[in-house]
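Problem: given the chain below (433 residues), write out its structure.
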Amino acid sequence: MNKKLISAAMAGLLMMTGCSGTNATSKSASQSGEKTTVEFWYAGGKTAVGVIQNIVDKYNESQDKYEVKTVTQADYDETYQKLQAAIAGNSAPDLVLLNPNSARTLDEKNLLADLNAYTEKDETFNKDDLISAFYNQGTDEDGKQFALPAYGTTQVLYYNVQAFKDAGVDPTSIQTWQDLGDAAQKIKDTGKYDYGWEPMWGPDNMIDAAFSNGASVFSEDGKKVTINSQEWVDVFEQFRKWIHEDKTMTIHSGGQGWEYWYDTIDDVIQNKAGGYTGSSGDQADLDFSIVQAMEQPAWSSSTKSQPTATALTMSVLNASSDDEKQGAYEFMRYFMSVDSQVTWNTSVGYVAVNKQIMEDETYKKFLEDHPQAAVPFNQADHASLYPVDPTNGQVYDALKIAADKVEIDNVSAKEALDEAQKTAQAALDAVNK
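Solution.
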């Protein structure tokens, strides 16, 4: 579909779903109908949105006690922003899909239900069935389970097979980001491609590379922000050079919702670029006769690959009724089941959070035919976790601003990160005081 039409359709959808009347209508329906209505807000790429809706539809058909009704948002950030407004206006949904940092912020304001009250009564629930790195992202310091993982994500490398052949680059030779930089130069030098590689807009690619260079966000005692250390500067500066000096790499930025993301993918599929760094969830949108996947490399020969892995989590709002909370929990359990996780992973590509998926015969067969699906799983085994940020995301926001300055404005990494460190340190000092 034409990207302008996608944007227009998304804008129209947001206009229809953004008003507070949606939630009020569903509540009155739940009171008069036989089923309890559970309103669920979520976002995702174009394929993910449809697959979640399919799982919701199957759940609704599988039982006669609850009816999950969905409201989609443009992206995860907008979900959180609109949720805050809905909470203030007493029109919040019952269930919401968020990144863990956003959910943690709501938890600190006591706006989310403690899911321990439900899991402890659920004889079929076993937290050991879930990947601990994802499960633990929904637990606070007091042991409250404010969220359960829906799926995991980590960013991997998707390369254009023909571009690598044209440049004489063996994909298995990419052991470091420096190797990838050299490959990007060779691909650009063929004259057949506009760019050798396209990092995805935002700080995440550079955060991944920095972690693989031994960088940290905070000092060991948690009192100092360390995002302007040499490990960070080296990575951000190298990306700046690749983009603005060598011109072997580029990024797409701006646009509405996920527009920049699909523009990046299109460049690789349409043979304009040699590859890009993208989400495990992109696999449903890719043609693997054109591209293949590989793990992110180490930053250099003296470091090891440690890109981040994170969960997208589902939380239940405290203000919902007991019946709505129970219905929301029941749907979360359905979404985390092996059958749903197989459907989700094979259709979208995000990392499944239920480890039992690996024992499922259908999934084993899928991996035989689609080996690229195993790449995110393998990478998650040695991935880093972005640390809990006591500033409610202000450190990440500072990194986001620094990344834009480096990638878009061609500001030196040291200047951008020094400024980011000052902003982030001030936020951390305010929390510690």
